[in-house]
Prior knowledge:
This protein is α+β, with helices and mostly antiparallel strands.
Amino acid sequence: MAKHSDSDDGWEARRNRIIGLGERSFRKSYYPQLRQNLDRLERFRTLLDRTSDFVVLLALPEGTIIDANMALAQLLGRPLDTLIGHPLASLGVADATAILDDLRREMSGPVDDGEVSSHSQIAEYRLEARSIWLELSYRVAVVDQRSYGVLMGRDITERKRSHELVTKLLAEKEALLDNALVGIAMLRRRRIVACNRRFEEIFGYPPGTMAGQSTRRLYASDDVFSSFGNQVYDALNDNRSFSATLMFARADGSTFWGEATGRVIDPAHPQDDSIWVISDVTERREAEEKARFLAFHDALTGLPNPLLIQDRLDQAKGFADRAAMKIALMVVDLARFKTINDSLGRGVGNRLLIEVARRLRNCVQDTDTVCRQGGDEFLILLPNLADAAACAIFLAKVMDNLLIPFKIDDRELVITVSIGIAVYPDDGADFESLLKKADMAMYRAKGAGRNAYHFFNAEMNGDAEEQLTLHFGLRRALDSGQFVLHFQPQIEIASGTLIGAEALIRWHHPEHGLILPGRFIPVAEENGMIVPLGEWVLRAACCQARRWQDETGLPGLVVAVNLSALQFKRGDIERSVTLALQESGLDPSQLELELTESILIQETEKVLATVMRLKHMGVKLSIDDFGTGYSSLSYLKRFKVDKLKIDQSFIRDLATDSESAAIVRAIIQMARSLGLRTIAEGVEDKPALELLRLYHCDEAQGYYFSRPVPADEFSGKYRTPIPVCAS
Ligand code: C2E
Ligand code: CA
Ligand code: CA
């Protein structure tokens, strides 16, 4: 306190007290004391001026500034004497009046000797263009019963700015995290430490509910949780980041495809926290799948486009080559489509195309391909055909299906089709040339009139036509009794006695005369008619065998019936056999079933079970055409067959070809060692028979004894045994 006014009561009183002691003694005893006090005052003044906080002393109650330190002068950039003697408000502190009010209130309140409460506040101070923030504290100080206001303060502008900056940055970070399009989470030991809003949204949890949870609930199953976890943590412990797309589970149990990337925060402690970014990529995956689909499919009908069919052809060619099979490429053209499209509008046209596509798809099997070639043209690829004509039945089915009127908007639309067919490998080796030829054939079909098909190779047309005649004729033939059985004797070589007969089917066609099974059995197998046809053969053969027995009173013959693979696959062969035996009253031991190797190698366990049950019924089993197929010894034992029927191709040149003779001998020897009987079929002459006798073949069948003959003709032979030496 360097300056005092003379009116200051405290100072005057003190001086008077000192002077009252007398000038001399004052000099003698108080001068050094005074000197000392003045030094202390000086030191205190320096200290005050050096502090960074500013201090202002106010006279109360007026609020005039009576003293202040240098810090204030520096802060305001004004010399101290421009401040002292002026009211507090002149400093520019916004709340000067309020401060003074506080101090005055304090001053008049109960004063507990210095124990006055202090006030503090943060105030904004405008200094010319600049605004600074001050942290102020003030209190009343009483000295010699006089009250002063002490106001202290410091510039906290910098501190406040950095605080604001941090708050702003945090808010920005939070906004950034919460508005991110990806879910972000911090994990520790497979628990969520913290996550953003999007993370909770992706997984379908309410805000703020995921922190602290185990990550188990994010996965579709325990297995995924543990296996994925192992992979991820192996990578993270290795300090690598990890990225994967996998199925995650939402709170409601539904699943989605998520792309997850994870990395550890502190590479020195890979087991600790890791940061995970997850995004829902379901839509993207679906879009990618759709794009992939569209690249190979027609958007309107969903059918593959020609790119895919080309690919399928290339794949099918390899198999066809190995198995000596054929592949058909068809061009299907809708004849009346353009008229419909033009007159009824594209909407109707499009729906018609969709419907045509649906019907075409219904006609084909899984291995076949239908595609839209653009416009009103479709392509069909049929692989695995035994021969070109084998697709005739398919063609008939397609045309039948497309002939049924289409119902669109209560309108009945009728279309006609023209189909052109090219066959691999006959007509071409690659897609381009096959397509060109199928197209040419399609134009020929168009020329032939509505609903026609045409093969590029003219010869195939005849074959296909015949197949179709047979296909359409089979059902009618069965219903109207056009089938008959012929019987071919089976002779025991050693004794020369007739012991059995093979039943062989014949078709007496009202126009085409006698049709041999070699022509119609493959068609019946193709269109499924072999099942009812086979049932008829079983019944007719059993009835005939029983009738012969009743007529002659002789011991029963064994009747052999041929079975097709399809009867095992689609029909109920056990039931057919049981019914045939019941209906005829024939003893099961008088029925022999001729199985082909192709039956025994398909779906072995199921076939084995069926064959075993037939065997238990007492029915005999033989293997037809033995030696031409797989001839695996294992199934002969497993299926417990009774007899091997040596294929006629070996018997035909038995006497002239030593290789055939060797095979026949080997088969007979093997059969004998397994306890099986053997029968040679296609025995046409005496030398063959004599060799068979030499080789100990048990039975023989062939033109040498008799051709297959109608039942009544057979009866005659049965009554009068055939001499074995007949020529
Ligand atoms: P497969 O079972 O091998 O029948 C033997 C074929 O050889 C019969 O022809 C028969 O007439 C003929 N054959 C018999 N002995 C001789 C001979 O000494 N020399 C010559 N060159 N041929 C002889 P078919 O009756 O034309 O039957 C052909 C094929 O049709 C049969 O071959 C069989 O696979 C099938 N088949 C016939 N009837 C039926 C039937 O009812 N059901 C089934 N699923 N297939 C049958
Ligand atoms: Ca046979
Ligand atoms: Ca045979």
